Amino acid sequence: MRTEDFCYELPEELIAQDPLPDRSASRLMVLGKNTGEIEHRTFTDITEYLHSGDCMVINDTKVIPARLIGARIGTDAKIEVLLLKRKSDHVWETLVKPGKKARIGTRISFGEGKLIGEVIDIVEEGSRLIRFEYEGIFEEILDELGQMPLPPYIKHQLKDNDRYQTVYAKNPGSAAAPTAGLHFTPELLKEIENQGVDIAHVTLHVGLGTFRPVKVDDVEDHHMHSEFYRIEESEAKKINQAKESGHKVICVGTTSCRTVESAADENGRLRECSGWTDIFIYPGYQFKVLDELITNFHLPASTLIMLVSALAGRENILNAYEVAVQERYRFFSFGDAMLIH
Question: Which of 48, 85, 124, 292 has the fewest CB atoms within 10 Å, i.e. is most exposed?
């Protein structure tokens, strides 16, 4: 499989720059994973495809204000730091721009010295390990000094940071939002529960590997960044019960999908667990837990378009994306949604 097999043409004006005023007002493309048939609906119609006894899996991670703008101590040169992964209490794996100004030993001041970072190592793909010095509680300092880490293709300033969080976000740790969940409102979730659908919460802290294009020619040569996940016993039971009773497991977003597929045993059963996953799902993968997927429209040549192609077939997906372009769907994080069923 070649990476170029997962490319498609996307006019830049179809990349959604702002969230809609009403989260659930997005359009919904419904794609038959076996037939390739397409329906055009609105997101609130999702209730018509969910049934009593089904289990819908959501990722309750919370995006942290992970983008810090600082000054190099000694030169005052501007340096941007993006927190990717907490390695210990005071040490984070980060992306630093410009990287050439962040050699080992470089010290960076944020918020006029409220937070000091020192580069202590350079790791894979040029990421930096930074040890932070501060007084007080790191999360509170981050809330004060940090900015939301919007994807590079979003050029507009976000007016309300909560719009880059799901309404059910509660466990801080992500550098990017699980964006398929942005379409849900509390009212819509309540309506789904009232239908007799179980909602299972899992946590996967999304890293920036989500946005990185695949740079190798052969798909199988790509290496995924690892991300931390957790599943509680009560939530594993909900998912197992749906499978055992012959009902469907519908994952909201590729992150929920990757969590349950990483955690399942060979029989597709889940138990309470946590750990790190670098699972890479591409065509040929046999899903153990997931039956259906609610997702957004993904970047060309990304691991995410490969994941949805594993579920619905590459030709079906590329055809659906072509139709989405023709029908002027909105793409990526703040864009419209797709149900693969």
Answer: 124
Residue 327: partners with Cβ closer than 8 Å, 6 or more residues away:
40
Stretches where the chain sits below pLDDT 70 are 209-212
pLDDT tens digit sequence for 15-34: 999 999 999 999 999 999 99
Single-letter amino acid, residue 131: R
Three-point CA angle 195, 199, 248, nearest 5°: 75
Report how far residue 160's alpha carbon sits from residue 221's, in angstroms, rounded to the nearest whole number: 39
Cβ distance 127 to 111 under 8 Å?
Answer: no
Q: Residue 28 belongs to what H/E stretch?
A: strand 27-31
Q: Quote the CA–CA distance of 27 and 329 in Å, as a whole number.
A: 7
pLDDT recorded at residue 225:
82
**CA 25 to centroid of chain Cα atoms:** 20
pTM summary value: 0.92
β-partners of residue 78 are: 71
**Residue 96 has what pLDDT?**
93
* The one-letter amino acid at 172: P
Give the torsion sign (CA, 111, 113, 115, 120). Answer: positive
> Angle at the Cα of 110 (from 106 to 113), degrees rounded to 5?
90
| Ranges of H-type helices in the chain | 138-145, 186-194, 233-244, 254-263, 303-312, 314-326
- Can you read off the two tokens belonging to residue 7? 């490319």
Residue 204's nearest CA partner among 241, 143, 257 is 257
